[in-house]
Amino acid sequence: MRRSDKEITDQDLMDEILKKAQVCRLAVSFKDMPYIVPMNFGYADRVLYFHSAHEGLKVMILRENPQACFEVEINTELVPSEQGCEWTMRYQSVVGFGEVEFIDDIAAKREGMKIIMQQYSNEQPFPVDAVLAGVTLFKLKVNTMTGKQSGAIT
Questions:
Q1: Where are the domains positioned within the chain?
Q2: What is the pLDDT of residues 2-16, one digit of tens each?
Q3: How far apart are alpha carbons 4 and 39 in whole angstroms?
Q4: Which of these, 19, 66, 72, 102, is most buried using a 10 Å CB contact count?
Q5: Which pLDDT tens digit goes with each residue over 136-149?
Q6: DSSP assignment of 64-131, as one string?
Q7: Strands 47-52 and 42-44: what pairing?
Q8: What does pTM read for this prediction?
């Protein structure tokens, strides 16, 4: 990382950022075409879980090329200045790389969906197996991740 003064090296802090984030941007590539999509997700033990429809561009790409990149950020705040070129942002972010695996087993789908739902609330009713059968669930096992922060985070 070019700005080592902004680098987050503490894995616990990166895990905290991932657990607080509301949106994960998932980036994939297909035949030299990049594609990025914001998604709801869940995070536990260096694995991100996502749900999707059975068909669509990202699912088609991931079945062909399971390599993916992700990004999340929290605590974003614009910091204006007297000079336009001196405006900045406060933030904490995590970027990582990994490989996607599709989850077909209904018990594993149930566990993955539970992790996704816990990302947002512990009070959500859990979907029945018939609902789980109607969604595609996949996980991204994180190979590497880096964190970055800028400004005083309050």
A1: 4-143
A2: 667 778 899 999 999
A3: 29
A4: 72
A5: 999 999 999 999 99
A6: H--EEEEEEEEEEEEE--SSGGG-EEEEEEEEEEEEEEEE-SHHHHHHHHHHHHHHH-S-SPPPPHHH
A7: antiparallel
A8: 0.91
